[in-house]
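Study this pair:
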Amino acid sequence: MTVIREADVITSVADALQYISYYHTPDFIRAMGRAYEMEQSPSARDAIAQILTNSRMCAEGHRPICQDTGIVVVFVKVGMGVSWDATSDLECMINAGVRRAYLDPQNKLRASIVADPAFNRGNTRDNTPAVIHTEIVAGDRVEITLAAKGGGSENKSMFAMLNPSDSVADWVLDRVPEMGAGWCPPGMLGIGIGGSAEKAMLLAKKSLMEPIDIGELLARGPNTPLEKLRLEIYRRVNELGIGAQGLGGLTTVLDVKILDYPTHAASLPVAVIPNCAATRHIHFTLDGTGPAVLIPPDLNSWPKVQWRADAAARRVSLDDLTKQQIAAWKPGERLLLSGKLLTGRDAAHKRICALIEAGKPLPEGLDFNGRVIYYVGPVDPVGSEVVGPAGPTTANRMDRFTDTMLGRAGLLAMIGKAERGPETIASIAKHRSAYLIAVGGAAFLVSNAIRASRVVAFAELGMEAVYEFEVKDMPVTVAVSAEGESVHDLGPAKWAGKFSRIPIIVE
């Protein structure tokens, strides 16, 4: 009988979470390399170059690919022939591994999990608890698949109970534009069909753990109806022209995965869950001989792509920025920002706007008048870093606060990722402001532009505190101009329908 030790489970989970925080899987790197070679949209190609450059930097420096180091999702298969040498239950063992990984002083990961989710939303400080799915199966091994799922992509998950005669492909095609760019494309779509409502969602999530193999499927052609459906959705989604970061381009999805399960004759449950450009997952087996052995990928497998700032990019001084300068920025234009900016996310915005609405002063030293804000929750620094990986968070979560921040707090401009809602775009135009985007999935690269960091307010919020960053040549793209023109409308409209005309690299 195989004996699984508690210490081996904890060590394996901790090591695996550290591993996936800085190593992309080789299949993802190959797929992104193919997307880079095929891409013809300059903006999308620049974004993919940043993602690939960031990926190699993280693999070499052992720092997180994305500042959002995710909610831990675990799929466990426990063999019925397994015996345990443990004093804790399996859930406690896994959470002990999560805790060890996220508090590792050599590469501390961001704690993003909040308890009492409907009310107090207090940060658990160690990213526990994980979401754990356990199966009891035949055999004498324990198989564990771990994922660290970012909130931006998880928030775009969708589910519907279709009629049995409805088209799954049509439903997915209708949903993808609704997802916008907040899930940080290009990435994967996981689709679950059948079972019950919760089973379809679980199937969709499980499918994202499978390797990217759309190139092989394109080369040999489909053998099953599900493979045919994968190819149909893959082609039709990329025909939408959404592209990397929603900027408009040829590749929106790198692969489409589908799992199905028998369902009720009256039902057709369908779920879709996207995986972002910081896809993180790993599979290992415990057989009683010790903790899992994780072999680093070959750094030579990364494509020879090195992002460099566009020579034509406009250099902007944040310390003396004016509305007249902002008015000259054009949608899709690339900027390099230098100077001081403030940061803030959901929790900070809620507090700030509540104080403003109540006519109360902001905390001492916090003044948004004439400033730019960056929507970010950074990873803690290690070693000589002034801040850890610090990529953008999804901006439309701040839409409800934007008019107050622009009109009453005196904010000049905002930096985040993905599109803004129509009311926010109207507010940007009304106040002659602008919205800029940094590349989601390039957090370590972006953090290299940050030369100083200090907490200004709400330190108790942890990663959601308000910081002041001093940056040098921070790369951003104008997403919404002072005229209210959005690159997330203009870019996809320009590139829609062009994917089918481009030879697809499948090797």
